[in-house]
């Protein structure tokens, strides 16, 4: 089949959307990377025929990205899209050879997630103001995110009708349009009800904008940029400096759940909607570090108690004894 590269890219994007059911953000990112790749080939004078795509084209593109994108993480994101596309082309028998193994994705060091420290989490949940309508929304959003562990995109996609009239369980749609149940704490439920009762608009969205530009519209749904602005404002107002983005709430939920469930990774995976258990490795490392720190403090405490108490009473009568007394037979 004499297929043009651009047509092959379009077919793959369509497969991602319909059959693979990937998220809009993923589809958008992959489309952008494929467009950058074909533009690079065109500038090199490539015919842009799929049959003419070869190993040297891929090597040249990787050298180009190394100059263009100094960050290994950025290069990895770009090359993963190309490698996935090539793997799909081979599987669909659109190319005679699987060229995906010619794409070398740089290894990137896994960064540990950064949840809110316990003292900042306590400060955040206890000190959120809730007098004005916008403040009630902010408080409800923060409690919702920390209660459920939802991604911000999942939270902003919800409508008012998605909140049950009774009970604390609701259904969210995550990556790949997969649905899962999440649960509200009583505090989160109360914050949501307080916020919804203050609403006077007709927008179906659960979380809405209160800026002047959105007041005139019917669907005033809060955007991701708006949510980041809310978090930044709260961060500076309360001095919760670790609260750098809405996603920090998800990290906090994951870490706290692992602690209170004594490391039940499968349960936390289901609650957060992670497809792969490997995603939770960073959280387990944080919990393990906290446990080690707790045991160090516990050991210091015991050592301090032993130093304060002095020798045991039986040791005063038996100065030569250096170990615990024998048990009576």
Which key phrases capture this entry?
DNA polymerase, domain 1; 329 residues; 3% strand; mainly alpha; 2 domains; two-stranded antiparallel ribbon; single chain; hpI Integrase, Chain A
Based on CA atoms alone, the radius of gyration comes out at 28 Å
Q: Tell me the name of the CATH class of the largest domain.
A: Mainly Alpha
Characterize the main sheet: 2 strands, antiparallel
Mean pLDDT: 84
Number of strands: 2
Total helical elements: 14
Write a structural description.
- This protein is mainly alpha-helical and 329 residues long.
- The chain has two domains: 5-102, Orthogonal Bundle (DNA polymerase, domain 1); 118-282, Orthogonal Bundle (hpI Integrase, Chain A), CATH 1.10.443.
- Helix content is 57%, strand content 3%.
- The chain has 14 helices and two strands; from the N terminus they run αααααααββααααααα.
- The protein has helices at 5-18, 24-43, 55-68, 72-91, 118-127, 133-148, 152-156, 186-197, 212-215, 224-238, 247-260, 265-272, 281-309, 313-317; strands at residues 169-173, 179-183.
- A two-stranded antiparallel ribbon has the order 1-2.
- Helix 1 packs antiparallel against helix 2, helix 6 packs antiparallel against helix 8 and helix 6 (133-148) crosses helix 11 (247-260).
- It is globular and about 75 Å long.
- The model is unreliable at 320-325 (pLDDT under 50).
